[in-house]
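Quick check before the chapter quiz. The format below is the same one you will see on the exam, so make sure you can read both the input and the output lines.
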Amino acid sequence: MGRDEYTAGSGRERVRGRLTGQDDGIVLFGTSRNRPEDNAAGGSGLGVNAYLWRATLDTLAFMPLASADPFGGVIITDWYSPPGAGAERFKATAYVMGRQLRSDGVRISIFRQVRQGQAWVDAVVAPATGAELEDRVLARARELRSQSGVATR
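Here is the expected output.
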């Protein structure tokens, strides 16, 4: 007799499954926090693409890490001197941009200094150095994505 709260169009039917986690847990104020673009980015809570982020960390792992912001997508390394090259050192800043795995989703800037007497002086870096590191990051990101696809099957 007019008990429309149990019909298919009722509010009860619209929230079915939300308390059991089928729709990202509890929904507050009628807004679901489950966004499709989260799954496309590697299924993480990062502010940037998870594959690019992990690949960038892996690629720059030979340098000491100074700072990493996974929500802003910025990785800054400390100065690094290659073995046998005590008169020069390098530093990198990587920017992971966006939540999609795209070829223009990462930018790496390399800084170089050479020792002159007791001081470090800025020096020119070959423009291809940053691009080469970006290519390595993209190759590693593709590898990580393919590994995760195999693991989920």
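If your answer matched, good. Residues 17-32, 35-43 have pLDDT under 50 and may be disordered.
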